[in-house]
Design a protein that fits this description.
Elements: E1 5-18, E2 21-43, E3 46-51, H1 52-55, H2 57-62, H3 67-70, E4 72-77, E5 80-96, E6 99-112, E7 119-124, E8 127-133, E9 139-145, E10 148-162, E11 167-179
Length: 180
Amino acid sequence: MLPSARKKMSSTYKVERHGDRVNRVGYEYFLNVFATAGGFTGDANIPLKFVGSDLFPGICDVTPNAPICVRTYSAIAQPKYEGTNIALGMNVAMGWDRFFVTLPITYAWTDVDVINETVTALNITPRIGMTGDMGDRGTVAVFLGATYLRAEVDILRRWRFVSASETRTAGTHSLASTGR
């Protein structure tokens, strides 16, 4: 992770007097800008199920009730993958008294060797909360927030199914996943 740049944008305070007590009332806000870069490797076990009519459309168009057409085929894909990731982001935050509001925004580009194109993702996570003093135990922050994640992935691969008695090539299939 690259070092982040924290820049204090502004502060506004006013002083209120209540008898012998003086309160500093106001708010602070700042902008934190950051960039990250990294690499990764991994593996997975992905269960797959296909209806025979999807695997053998030529045969099943002619004989739709053939045993190979109505059968469900199962397999487990075990891909190994590696890639790189770069992200740019910022966090705008504002606090006053014990309360705070924060708006982190991150845009990432990820290249994975098992995917044909760069995956991009936008993540926005606004939060509002408050902090409390827990004495010798420190400070606690409680917040309520939401997450918006937009990422689009289109995976196009060639699969080969191997059983004890035969080898079949299933062909090229596209699995599309869009998160919004």
